[in-house]
Design brief:
Number of strands: 13
Helix content: 40-55%
Structural class: alpha+beta
Number of domains: 3
Length: 555
Amino acid sequence: MIAAFVLPHVANHALGLASLDVMTSVSFAWLPWMLNPVGLAILYGAFAVHIALAVFALWRRRTLKMPVWEAAQLALGLLVPLILVQHVMGTRGATLFGASGVAYPGVVLGLWLDGWPALQQAAFLVVVWAHLCIGFHYWLRLRPWYARARVALTIAAILLPVLGLLGFARAGWEAARKAAEDPAWGGEELRGMRPEDPAAEAARMRTTLGLLGGYLGILALVLAARGLRHAGKRRAASVKITYPSGRTVVAPAGLSILEISRFGGVPHTSVCGGRARCTTCRIRVADGAENLPPANHLETEALRRVNAEPNVRLACQTRPSGACTVFPLIPPRSPSALGAVEKPDSFGRERQVAVLFIDLRGSTTLAEGKLPFDVVFYLNQFFAEMSDAIDEAGGHYSNFTGDGLMALFGLESNVKAGVRDALAAALAMLRRLDHLNQRLENELRQPLKMGIGIHSGVAIVGMMGPPKTPILTALGDTINTCARLESLTKSYGVDLVVSEAAARAGGLDLSGFARHEAEAKGKAETVPMYAIPWPGNEAVLAQLSQAQAGKGLAA
C-alpha cells in the first residue's frame, strides 16, 4: 500500500517539469482514490504497521552486527516516522485543528515559500524511496527474471526520484512566481493551510512535538530493553558453535546460528537478511543435531523447495540449545550469495545421473606446424560445436580439460531420460564433427577425431570450485568410470562407448553392437559396455535419436 502511494506521488512530482497545471491536473485523477476516508485509513494503517514492524525488528535482533544493506534498511525504516509525522501534521493533519485545507498548488506554494518544509519534503522522498528500493531489491533478487531486468529497474530507481525532486522544484518556482505576480492568487491558494486560531496552531505544534517525542521515547525504551536483555543473556547459559576452519564462537543461548556467526564475525551468507525467504544461509549439521529444535513451518517449507537433506538447516531459523558443529553451504562470494537463483543440486547431494565424456584425439599433432592463434581457433570451433550439441540435448556443460569436456544429463528429469539425452547429444556431436571437418578440410593435415564415453550411476552433484566461479559438476566413482570408458574408444577403435548400466537405465537395447567386458584402469572388476563405431551404424544411431524423442523406443 505504501509503495502504491509513493510511486504515483513521485511520478506526479516529476510532471512539475512540464508545469504546475499538469502536475495539478494529474493529481486530480489519482489522489481521490487515496485521500478519501477509506484510503487514508488504509494508508495511515499501513504506515503504522510498517513503523511497528521496524521497531519490532530492532527489538527482535539479538545482535546489531549485520550487513550494510540490512543496517541501511533498518535505519531508514526507523527514520521515516521522524519525517512522516511532520509532513502529515503539516498537511492533512492540520485540518484536525481547524485548518480548512488547501489544493495541490497551495501545498506546493506553502512548502516552497517556507523553505524548511520543502527540504523536509525532499528528505522524506529520499528516505522513503531508498527504503523501498532496498526492500524491493532484496525481495526481487530471488526471482529468476530479476537479473535480466535489473539494469532497467536500477535506472528507473535512480531517475524517477531525481525527476520528482526537479519537478517539485520547478513547480515550486512557478507557484512562487505566480504568487508574486498575483498576490490575490497566492493568498487564496494558501488560505486554509494553517489553523487561523493561534491557540489551535499552538496545539498542532504541541501534538507534532508530542508524537515525535513519543516515537523517540519508544525507540529509547526498546534500546534500553535490548541492553537489559543482553546483560541478562551474559549471565545466562551460552552455546558453542564450531565452523569448518576449526574456529569456535561462544555466544548467549537464544541466538540463531546466523546471529551467532555475525556475533563472532564469521562471514555467513544471507540474501534475505534472515527472514527464511531464501535458503542461502543454510548449513549442514555435522555434530550436535540433538541440540537443535525442530524446524518451524517457514524453515520446513524453504528447505523443501531445494530438496534439502535431513541434516541441512536454515541458520537464520535455528536456535541451538547446546554445542554443535556446522558447515555453511554457500560461500559468501558465490553467485548464490549475490542472489542468483539456485538449482536444487547447488548445495550438493547424491543422485542418479547420466555422464558424457569427450576427448579430442591428436591435439598434440594438431599443434604441429600451426601458429598458436590457429590452434586456439580450431579448438574453439570444436568446443563451440560440442557445447551446442549438449545444449540442444538438454545437458549441462560441467568440466573443461584442455582437449576434452564432461557433461551431465538428467538433472531436470530422471536418469532414463538423461541417458537418452546423452546418446542424442553424442549422435549430434559426431555429425557436427563431420561437418566441421568438411569446413576445415583444406586447413588440417588430417580430420579431427574424438572419443565419447557414456555411463550412468550415482554421483555427488553440486556447485563446486572457487567461491567466485563455481560450476555445477559431479564427483564419484560413476564420473571416474565414465572417463575410463571414454579412453577405451582408442582400444576398441570406435568413436562411442556406452556402458551396459547406462543402456539399462535408459531402457535401450544395444545388442546390435559389440559387447565387451572391459578392464577399466583403476577398477578391479570389469565394466560391461558396448562399442559403437561411427560412421557405419547410422541406422541404429537414428533409432537411438527416435527413442530419445519418444517416437520409437527400443525395447
